[in-house]
UniProtKB/TrEMBL annotation:
This is WHG domain-containing protein. It comes from the Bacteria. It holds the Pfam family TetR_N. Residues 28-47 bind DNA. Residues 5-65 form the HTH tetR-type domain. Keywords: DNA-binding, Transcription, Transcription regulation. One of its GO terms (molecular function) is DNA binding. InterPro entries: Homeodomain-like_sf, HTH_TetR, MT1864/Rv1816-like_C, Tet_transcr_reg_TetR-rel_C_sf.
Length: 192
């Protein structure tokens, strides 16, 4: 029996908010059920379990991120697009740490393929990189480099891993500038 007022979307949004507050690992079906003042069983009409709930949070986050990313890179190319993309990425990770963590977990590729937000985020990423004139397989390699670099920086920053007097903002600017330089000279760099 479905609890009046509960929907899969509402349960997902509450789980996403909870993830931002206490961390993705602390999000359980029981914790979400407590938020609603219901028993765990009441949520199983809306989500299949914790893996499903976390996948839903990941898809919600991917859609939110794409909604943020689209306007950030619109009308920009090259370095301007890269800086806007990187800043949007970092900003989302900072503002929504639990949602961001959910986006980093593996989700069934068939589920991702059916999610408009995920597809839009992927398309925006490849679109931003088109300004660098990369064809396949270079474009996919560049996406992986970009994601690895940005994720590594924001993850280390979040964990307090930059325990040095050097200004973190200056280091962020250097990292993005280095990515731009490499992307601009991709073929030259790989043939060296």
């Amino acid at each position: 029996m479905r609890r009046a007022g509960l929907t899969a979307d509402l349960v997902t949004r509450v789980a996403a908010d909870l993830a931002d507050e206490v961390g993705l690992d602390a999000v359980t079906v029981s914790a979400v059920a407590r938020h609603f003042g219901v028993k765990d069983a009441s949520l199983y009409s809306h989500v299949r379990g914790i893996a499903d709930l976390r996948a839903r949070v990941a898809l919600l986050a991917a859609a939110e991120f794409a909604d943020l990313l689209g306007p950030a890179v619109a009308g920009r190319s090259g370095r301007d697009a890269l800086v806007a993309f990187a800043d949007a990425y970092r900003g989302y990770a900072r503002a929504h740490p639990g949602r961001y963590a959910a986006m980093q977990q593996p989700v069934d590729p068939d589920v991702v393929a059916g999610a408009a937000g995920s597809r839009r985020g992927i398309e925006l990423t490849y679109g931003m990189l088109r300004g660098y004139g990369l064809d396949e397989p270079d474009a996919t390699d560049a996406v992986r480099l970009l994601r690895s670099t940005l994720h590594g920086f924001v993850d280390l920053e979040r964990r307090g891993g930059f325990n040095d007097p050097r200004d973190v903002e200056a280091s962020w600017g250097c990292a993005v500038a280095a990515l731009h330089l490499l992307l601009s000279r991709w073929r030259e760099a790989l043939s060296a």
